[in-house]
Each structure stands twice: as structure tokens, then as C-alpha cells.
Amino acid sequence: TPTFFDADNDGVGDFEGIRQKLDYFRKIGATTIWARHVVQADKDEFDPSLVVDSFNVDKRLGTEDDFKKLVNAVHDKDLYFVMDLPLTVSKVHSYTTSSNLAKKSNESGSGNLYVINLGELAVSDNLLKTAKKYLDLGVDGFYFSEYKA
């Protein structure tokens, strides 16, 4: 999303930019819009895996109302809307203060990446609440990045 069309000319692609290009997506035969960066990420980076707040959209991309307008416009064009819902957080996320809620990733090059612990009730409950919120906003599906079975 941040690297796509920038409707407000602030240097960052945004929800409105995607909305303005929906006819193009229909023209090329797309059936689904997959937004790879939606939730609030670390303010210093646009790495969508460095989540600081998965419950809220990243304000650099627009407001929650802008997001809802985009999802509604996608549906008006008979398209589906899927978004990333990362299972990772940044070092500044509240989960990293408890060793049970998130663990530092052992993967090479992962830097400040922490993987959330879905075995913890507080984490899985929050993920379900977050998913329900976005479903209520009209999202059709999720891609759970960084999932390892």
C-alpha cells in the first residue's frame, strides 16, 4: 500500500490512491485487491511485519473511514478485498514486554522482529477481536504472514 499510488501527494501511497485506481484493476482482470500494509507499523519504518498496533490502520495511509471507503468501493466494483494480518510485532509493541506473548525471531535478518505466541489466550483473543473488527469493516479475507505451523 505505501508504495502504490499517492493520492494526497505526501510521498506515501494510501487507501485513497488504491480507490482511485480500482477501474484499472478491473480492466486488467483482477478479482481481488490484496493490501499488504494496513495496520499500524513502527513509525520509523514501513515494514508491515513491525506492527505496533494491529487493531488500527496505519494513519500514514489514511483514516479508518478512508479504509472503509476503499473496502466499500472494492465491493462496488465486484472485487474482493484481502489484507495482511501479520503474526509479528516490532520491539515497541506491548507484547514484547512479556516473554510469554512474543518471542524474538531466530530467522536470519529478522532484526527487531518478534513473533506473537498464539498459544497465549490474551494474544489469540486479541487476534480474533482484530480480525472481527476488519471483517466488520468489510474485509473478505486475511493473509497471515510469518505463520509457522
Automatic annotation (TrEMBL):
One of its GO terms (biological process) is carbohydrate metabolic process. Residues 3-101 form the Glycosyl hydrolase family 13 catalytic domain. Transmembrane segments: none annotated. InterPro entries: GH, GH13_cat_dom. Pfam families: Alpha-amylase (PF00128). This is Glycosyl hydrolase family 13 catalytic domain-containing protein. The lineage of its organism: Eukaryota, Metazoa, Ecdysozoa, Nematoda, Chromadorea.
